[in-house]
Amino acid sequence: MISNFIFPDILLYLLDMVGVIACAIAGTLLAQHKGFDIAGCILVSMVNAIGGGTLRDMALDRHPLFWMTDLNYVIVITVTSLILQIFFHLYHKIDKALKFFDAIGLAAFSVIGFKVALAQDVSPVIAVMMGVWTAIIGGLLRDIICNEIPLLLQREIYITASIAGSVTYLVLDYWGVDAITNEFMMLFIIFAVRMLALKFDWHLPSIRLVD
Amino acid sequence: MISNFIFPDILLYLLDMVGVIACAIAGTLLAQHKGFDIAGCILVSMVNAIGGGTLRDMALDRHPLFWMTDLNYVIVITVTSLILQIFFHLYHKIDKALKFFDAIGLAAFSVIGFKVALAQDVSPVIAVMMGVWTAIIGGLLRDIICNEIPLLLQREIYITASIAGSVTYLVLDYWGVDAITNEFMMLFIIFAVRMLALKFDWHLPSIRLVD
Amino acid sequence: MISNFIFPDILLYLLDMVGVIACAIAGTLLAQHKGFDIAGCILVSMVNAIGGGTLRDMALDRHPLFWMTDLNYVIVITVTSLILQIFFHLYHKIDKALKFFDAIGLAAFSVIGFKVALAQDVSPVIAVMMGVWTAIIGGLLRDIICNEIPLLLQREIYITASIAGSVTYLVLDYWGVDAITNEFMMLFIIFAVRMLALKFDWHLPSIRLVD
Known about the structure:
Chain A is mainly alpha-helical. Helices cover about 75% and strands about 0% of the residues of chain A. In chain A, helix 1 crosses helix 2.
């Protein structure tokens, strides 16, 4: 039965913030690349970091939105974006680290979105979708604002990693694994799938190429 | 007086599913064309098929969203998109059929959006807008994600067909026509206007060209 | 303490309508430029004029949305867009006036978004964000639909003007200035900063250029 998540919430919160910082960095980098000004870069980094959770909360009718009651999100994003803009010339040194932090964010965002949806008593299928949604919508909106074709739809194991983690959770939960262990498993699997995909250049096929 | 829609709801539901399938096909085709992978194609087809209704429900504060309580939507879209991706090489054979099904979808989506809005006690003008909204936002979002200029804003009798149907409904309702007949009329008019526009290549002028 | 906005609401409503008209004009002009048809131009002008307030109300869970209970918005936008489309050849004569009206709109939209958010008991930081949000999201959505890179993120003192006004309000409020005076001040400062930025070609730096 899916219920009663008990989890070291502090850890999840910290991983969430790591994801927020990674998204803020990714948003600022793309915005800088597009020649946006200071305010524009901060705005894009906010969209990237909290856009997914915002739309999830709106879809699930959870009000007030999570970042309205916890100002840490807005503060962390703004500070991250400003620091990065000042030290933009160090960009090439952070690219690799960014992918690492981004994978942490993908895992944390997926778990949070999945948990939040289950707590609203939606069906497991919808909860899996909400995990994906929370994890990817921010990056999608960033690319849309910057007038780019979303990379994550093209060649990245991103959605797949999130789904793999959620499905594992559901299966283990069905087998009676306790919630804490299970949530750690979910975090780990999403992170691992994503990092392995980056390392070995895995990507989903575009089926069109097959025929 | 506008009230008490009584309608063979089963028929409307079936037409809705036809529209969902048409949208899932259209979304998958464009996503394939853009080189998106399997997950990306499914995501775009979901946005195309349920994006309009999702934003309508969020605007009207109807929760839970329609596809959260009826998993058929998610299942039908995913299966449609997967089948199409596997048989993509048959694409050229479905183009004509797609336009037919898409017109059914336009009619069904418009009627549903219009009815849902009236049931929330909004003014008739807003209900007409919500019919249009439900019918077009999905396609708009699809084009935005795929970084295309939305075709439907350029040269298609699409919004106009939806408005024509809604206004007919309102007029006939004022004249005392019963709801069932009226709803059939609305479905038929939208479908007919759209098909005739395709057949005779009607399109709204861009007034700019006049002067 | 931030509370009890008492303001000549009529004036604010009129300024709001000025902003709505300016946005409807800006949306129609861009849509015409893109070759959209009559319905497409009206749709883009609606998105531009009421898109920001719509998303603000959805984020703050204020229902029904403001334009659902006051049809003036939809009517004013539609009429404005149609008139402009008919007299599009006069475009070059309205460009300068547009910037003036747009600055009024920026001020009015910011004040309204800021007030609405405060009335929902959010923190001041979030209220400042909601002022910005109301003022810019419409234009952002317009550019996204028209497949343009949002200008306002690149080189305009726009977000900054809105923030300057909100922060002034908060500071003066803390110092005990009464709400009416304060709201006039906020309107004036946003308008003045925007007009001065246009006149003297101020823009925020893109920090990247510094290093």
